[in-house]
Amino acid sequence: MSFLSQALRGGALALVLGAVAPIGAAQAEEIRTPMIAQGCAGCHGQSGVGTGSVPQIAGYGRDAFITTWESFRKDERPATIMNRIAPGYTDDEVAALADYFSQLR
Amino acid sequence: MNGFSNGFSPKLTRRHFGALLAGSAFTLAAPAILRADSGPRLVVIGGGFGGASAARFARISYPDVNVTLIEPYDSFVTCPYGNLILGGKRALPQITHSYDGLRARGVDVVQNRARDIDPVAKRVTLADDTRIAYDKLIVSPGIALRRDAIEGYDEAASEIFPHAWMGGDGSQISILRRQLEALPEGGVVGLAIPPNPFRCPPGPYERISMIAHHLKQHNPRAKILAFDAKDGFSKQGLFQDGWAELYGDMIEWIPASQDGTITAVDPQERVFISEFGERHKVDVGNVIPPQYAAAIARDTGLADDSGWVPVDPLTFAAEAAPDIHVIGDANIGSPMPKSGYVANSTSKQAVAAAIADLRGEAAPADPVYFNTCYSHLGDDYAVSVAAIFRKDGEGGIMATPDSGGLSPRGPLSELAYNRRREAEYADAWYDSITTDMFS
């Protein structure tokens, strides 16, 4: 069995499970994490579920993610650290992050 | 994909699924029950921030790959948050992590020490002469202390003047904590701080802060003498502002240009001796010697004359040997700092690049590495430095221009909220990153 078809079978099973229950950390993990989003997990938790005071970003609306990111980038939105992080990513990278986190629902 | 005989439909449509797959690189979750004893063999030396992250990422992303993790200790004591033990804000069990989570993911955790690597035969030899074959090897062994850089600082000296700069079995940080608790009233705590490069640039200064936090409560007339082999340090403005704000004149920092470099110690007499021969009596002494890569990296020829391992910053492939990727503090990762977050962040690119090479594919293009270092100065008071690294277009990497940077400077009267939130975020970082390493 090729890697891709093996992956599709694993992914399909995960999608079925994801469809019948609210997204939780274990189910969120079944959705593939792009490399660009890996760095976020160090603060925002596995699959963006959040930890302690650091907010959940899993399920954040895609357009809202991009808008919020822009307001951090321009230092318009009160922030402790995201205003320093946001300028570090390109528009394409932010779009990929928005795609990923918004699909974790 | 759009329906199953049992009536359930997948939440994501085929189009969304395809869009996700079309991304430049992705990781794939898989049940831990999948074992692949006949698949490619990835061996990881070191079960710390780099190695544990690498092993876990590999099992999640590449279920067909056998992953073996070689680690001498039966659990991992983090250096991060070790300073909070000195400040009385954490206990050792709270910073000690089991490898059982990785075992549950199918990582073969071998409690042993790697003694040698044969890059031609592609085998690691352990301390007991067991040999483990690999297709790709991740080496994340951390640091070793250059004991010859400080005369008199032998192994026995570490019991009197602990370094507590490697987690080990937790004994070093525990010794230092007990010494602080037993400090005579009005006593002197000395630190000897190394030149660059060393593990965790802000670490010694968070340590000073946490020691001061303890002393302010329990021994307010005690003093801290911080002898530094450098003339500047990470987050210096923020630290010195905070020290003045929280600890008055308890802390004296002596830079190299004012004879702050400690070149010898006399543990029996409890004396630090400076470069120009000044003798400084201390009651408690924390000696953080100059450092280099751990022995496995040097003894096997991976490291160069600097004592650190040169690597390709886009794959972490070692320049010295094929099929070996070196991550974490042991490598030359400039401009990235030697931090746990960097080890964790870069581990994924290293694993992805290694597996891609096995499959005859290109490593993920345009990697982006991430770092945030938090430092606790007191209660509800932390500061940070953040950075995002990427290709510089000349084969190396750079900090992304006009991004990252330090927490704002200013008095608590203006920034108490920021300082408290950063302390909360630091706690969340610790939980999140150790989850990304061990769960």
Automatic annotation (TrEMBL), chain A:
The keyword Transport applies. Keywords: Electron transport, Heme, Iron, Metal-binding, Signal, Transport. Residues 23-105 form the Cytochrome c domain. InterPro entries: Cyt_c-like_dom (IPR009056), Cyt_c-like_dom_sf (IPR036909), Cytochrome_c_Oxidase_Subunit (IPR050597). GO terms for molecular function: electron transfer activity; heme binding; metal ion binding. Coiled coil: none annotated. The keyword Signal applies. Residues 1-28 form the signal peptide. Gene3D superfamilies: Cytochrome c-like domain. This is Cytochrome subunit of sulfide dehydrogenase.
From TrEMBL, chain B:
Residues 175-289 form the Sulfide dehydrogenase [flavocytochrome c] flavoprotein chain central domain. InterPro entries: FAD/NAD-bd_sf, FAD/NAD-binding_dom, FAD/NAD-linked_Rdtase_dimer_sf, FCSD_central, FlavoCytC_S_DH_flav-bd, FlavoCytC_S_DH_flav-bd_sf, SQRD. Pfam families: FCSD-flav_bind (PF09242), FCSD_central (PF21706), Pyr_redox_2 (PF07992). Residues 366-438 form the Flavocytochrome c sulphide dehydrogenase flavin-binding domain. The gene is fccB. Keywords: FAD, Flavoprotein. Residues 41-155 form the FAD/NAD(P)-binding domain. Gene3D superfamilies: FAD/NAD(P)-binding domain, Flavocytochrome c sulphide dehydrogenase, flavin-binding domain. This is NADPH-dependent 2,4-dienoyl-CoA reductase, sulfur reductase. SUPFAM superfamilies: FAD/NAD(P)-binding domain, FAD/NAD-linked reductases, dimerisation (C-terminal) domain. GO terms for molecular function: flavin adenine dinucleotide binding; oxidoreductase activity.
